[in-house]
Amino acid sequence: MMDSSKNDSGEECPLEIHDLTVAYHKKPVLWGIDLKIPSGNLIGIIGPNGSGKSTLIKTVMGMVPSSSGWVKIFGKSFRKNACRIGYVPQRESVDWDFPVNVLDVVLMGRYGRLGLLRRPKRDDREVAMQCLDKVKMLPFADRQIANLSGGQQQRVFLARALAQESDLYLMDEPFSGVDAATESAIIELLHELKDQGKTLLVVHHDLPTAKNYFDMLLLLNMRLVAFGPTEEVFNYDLLQKTYGGRLTILSEVADEVRRHAEADS
Amino acid sequence: MAATFRIVFVLALVSGFFPQVLEAAKIGDVTETRVIEQMFRFLSLKDPSVRATVIGTTLLGICCGLLGPFIVVRRLALVGDTLSHAVLPGVAMGFLWNMEKDPLAIFIGASLAGLIGACAVNLIKQTTHLKEDSALGMVLATFFAVGICMMTMIQRLPTGNKSGIDKYLFGQAAAMNQEDLILLSVVTTVVLLLVFLFYKEFLVTSFDAGFARSIGFPVNLIHYLLMLLLAFSVVVSLQAVGVVLVSAMLITPAAAAYLLTDRMHRMLILSVLFGVVAGVGGAFLSFLSNNLPTGPFMVLSATAVFLAAFFFSPRRGLIPRWWRQRSQTQRICRENILKAIYHILEAGEFEEEGVTFSELSIRRNEDLLEVRPQILDLEKADFVTVSKSENRIYFTPDGWQTACSIVRNHRLWELYLTNAVHYAADHVHDDAEKIEHVLEEETVRQLEKQLNYERRDPHGKPIPTFADIEKGLPTARQSRPATGYMSKS
Amino acid sequence: MSELIPSFDFQAVFIVPWQEDFQGYFLIATMGFLISLSCGLIGNFIMLRRMALIGDAISHSVLPGLAVALFLSKSLATTAMFIGALVAGILTTVLIELIHQNSRVKPDAAIGIVFTSLFALGVILINVYAGEVHLDTECVLYGEIAFIPFEPLIDIGGREWFPGSVLRMGGVTLLVILGIVLFYKELLVTSFDPGLSVSLGISTRTTHYLLMGLLSLVIVSAFQSVGAILVIAMLILPGATASMLCSRLPAILWLTAGLCLPATLAGIHLSIWLDCSMAGAMVIASAVFFILAWLFSPRRGLLQQLIQKVRLPEVHNLTLDNSQE
């Protein structure tokens, strides 16, 4: 209990979340999440719209403040271990007219380990090129990012995450708006990363493919509904619980909380 | 030498846009020397005050030009505007410090006021339902009102040396003194140094703040550092550009650079260059026009640069884009006529060597008056030759090649649509009419392969092969008009 | 410092001016009230559409329009000025659209470029023709409402009541009120949900340009009294203050109207006390009202938020416990 950052086999737990609650404008969107992620897995986060999937990732990254609870990455706070996380944001989160080319974006993945005042060296360029090659985007290295298709933009983000050479990857809907070829290329790459012992958390919204893509699933609907190996978790009862039925009451309660907070004031 | 050249260039550019300004300077002057003499005085840089002005505006251009790109790509353009208006009470406070125009006191006061303004915008945005635009406008105007009230109060004070304080509204580069210049160069050096050292941090936080945070960059700290530098550069530019217009020196050169390049470091270099051009050019124009305020002239010089980029940027400019579109339309039109000639020849089983004007006009469904200039245009482009005596049109080798590949593209695409995509045969023509002009050689070869080198299109017409086109390649132009390079004979 | 801020004397600040020059102060107060009323009312809709900064841009760029009109007509002829400024105002919106639709420059930068350029052009024109037109560049920034009493009065029904500019402002204010009353639902729907307005058959475009036209008109009429920059405050502050205090649009509009008179009077007396720019003082008074509302609004004030923050953890624990049952 005391040494909660280690799991049974003694290695560090990539991500541990304890009693995490997050509220937007007084309305709770995540309630008391407790979670311990075992390392070396490809984990899908699934749940209906507004169930807090992206919020969960953003809270882990410290981009959204939490109302209570804490998050530990490899046993330390996010700030101390930021360099061990690779993050793939949603594609819409950046301005694609920005004056940088594909290689510049991938090089940004190296910035975290460069530290202050240091510039990317030849080695970093080399790594960036290799990462681009892995996502089959090498021929586009000099392209301005606006001149890419949606799938290609997503691959660039992925290459950037690869260039970070992290141990834990958090990806926010990497499959949204990409073509089938990119989707299968991405999933192949994710499996490759997993085989190298990395841990990957992927927000996903397509149920039918979720079963085949991930070895573990995290069912989320404001609360943690279930977390476990796909074959155990991906069943009718739990999905019903996640996507409908009893749990929708949570959102009603959440609204009530807000009304309560406002009326109280 | 290079500087002189640049100045002359700016003059040429700006005087093209605003001829009336130059002329007006002459009208306004009663006692002044002629424009040419004034020009000479400025360009020779003999006058120490002119030298100071040129140095000052160059530094200013560098300083604003370096920060501008980050403001533009972060969509903070109007934050810059708010910041620049919000410094006014600080200027007044700085003046009140010891009742004279003390650059350091004014610098500190104005920077503080600017930062307070920026914080006030953030605070309003975070703690109220008001949107960013309202918050910006509100802070801008309120701070400015406070500043104006303080200025009017200072004006009626009996003591103190008030000269120069009114120059802060619209700017007067010539009013910059030694201390102003020192301050300006210090700030420019600091900005230069910090942008150089933290280029990577500024870049990544501007592009993707979420990602920057995820790799452990202090995003907020960098944002406030940028705001601080922004406030500094606004404040040191005040003397030359004035409170009202200083934001333009940040936004406009950077926006012009944004239109010209796709890389951030090039954008920085271009923006600095444009900033310097606008700064020195503005000072020069204001000098010519008998020391009217410099700010408006600098802003207009920057706008001239922006307009030049807006219209003439090779890739994004309005005019190159319009030109490309036009030449594309022209190409398509030519190709369609060549195709029509091919069709006529084909209908005659390629027995005739040329087509007559009337045949073409019937085929194109246009009257002769319309067809004739089109033919002459083709002749000029060396696609056809026209024999005036026979009133016939003959393909040149180029013309044959083009016509043949267009027909090939058209028919291959029709075949592809019917065979592979299963369009109805009568639906494919219109689509092919468009596609035929854009298909590239590589794609066409792939199409052929995919269609098993089928020789007939869905309507039963033969598809010209690559060999047919090649056969048309002549060794030299023949004295007699080139013939139809028949594929069947 | 003591020279800067005169000692406060209630008699001298609040009573004496009205006794000495009742008509002058009455005219200034009327003008200030009319300006803040028309600006405040129309400003509410501008804010709802998130166009506050377009208002800013227009207020700056009417300057070259005014300058050209003044130069061409060689007088402060009202119609020429209206037309010039209206053209410049509409030109601004068109230019902004043109730049950001035909290039990758974002709207905010486009606004920044357009209004600074036009304003600069206006300043130069006015400076160059300084001898010929009666408009000085500093007045352009903050106006001279204190000059209202020196304008010639216009004869109506045998008595000389008001100067032309006040009458004009009155007309514009009536027009604004009339426009809001007549087209209230159109303005509301197009501001709130352009998609819905299309399905209701209300033209978003027409409404937009009508509003822009009205805005230009208000800005032009207010321009000489409050200047290009302070007019933005007049547009935003009263509406923002009112919206801190109530939540429904009709109530906000009424409250905006109600705030105008106290703000104007407070501004006048502030400027008498400090002997500073009158228009600036009116804006400061409005800003003080806003700050008060911001701090103490019972619905969403800072103080209220602070109290809630102290109490929020309790609320959380309570509801979480409930949910875990």
Task: Provide tags for this entry.
heterotrimer, A: 265 residues, alpha/beta, Rossmann fold, six-stranded mixed sheet, three-stranded antiparallel sheet, 10 helices, 22% strand, disordered N terminus, C: 325 residues, mainly alpha, ABC transporter involved in vitamin B12 uptake, BtuC, two-stranded antiparallel ribbon, 13 helices, 2 strands, 79% helix, 3% strand, globular
Describe, in plain words, how this protein is organized in 3D.
The N and C termini of chain A lie far apart (40 Å). In chain A, the strands form two sheets. In chain A, strands 5-6-7-3-8-9 form a six-stranded mixed sheet, with helices on both faces. A three-stranded antiparallel sheet of chain A has the order 2-1-4. Chain A has helices at 53-60, 78-81, 102-114, 122-134, 150-163, 180-195, 207-213, 230-233, 236-243, 249-264, and strands at 15-24, 27-37, 42-46, 68-73, 85-88, 168-171, 199-203, 216-221, 223-229. Helices cover 39% and strands 22% of the residues of chain A. In chain B, strand 2 (384-387) and strand 3 form a beta hairpin. Chain B folds into two domains: 2-315, ABC transporter involved in vitamin B12 uptake, BtuC, CATH 1.10.3470; 317-489, Winged helix-like DNA-binding domain superfamily/Winged helix DNA-binding domain (Arc Repressor Mutant, subunit A, Orthogonal Bundle), CATH 1.10.10. Chain B is elongated and about 105 Å long. In chain B, helix 13 crosses helix 14 (246-260) and helix 15 packs across helix 16. By secondary structure, chain B is an all-alpha fold. Chain B is built from 23 helices and three strands. Chain B has a three-stranded antiparallel sheet with strand order 1-3-2. By secondary structure, chain C is mostly helical. Chain C has one domain (21-146, 163-324): ABC transporter involved in vitamin B12 uptake, BtuC, CATH 1.10.3470. Helix content of chain C is 79%, strand content 3%. Chain C has 13 helices and two strands, in the order H-H-H-H-H-H-E-E-H-H-H-H-H-H-H. A two-stranded antiparallel sheet of chain C has the order 1-2. In chain C, helix 2 packs across helix 11 and helix 3 (52-73) packs across helix 10. Chain C is globular and about 60 Å long. Residues 314-325 of chain C have low confidence and may be disordered. The A-B interface holds A 58, 61-63, 79, 82-83, 85-87, 89, 93-95, 98-101, 104-105, 108-109, 111-112, 114, 116-120, 144, 160, 164, 170 and B 69, 73, 75, 197-201, 203-204, 206-208, 210-217, 258, 261-264, 266-267.
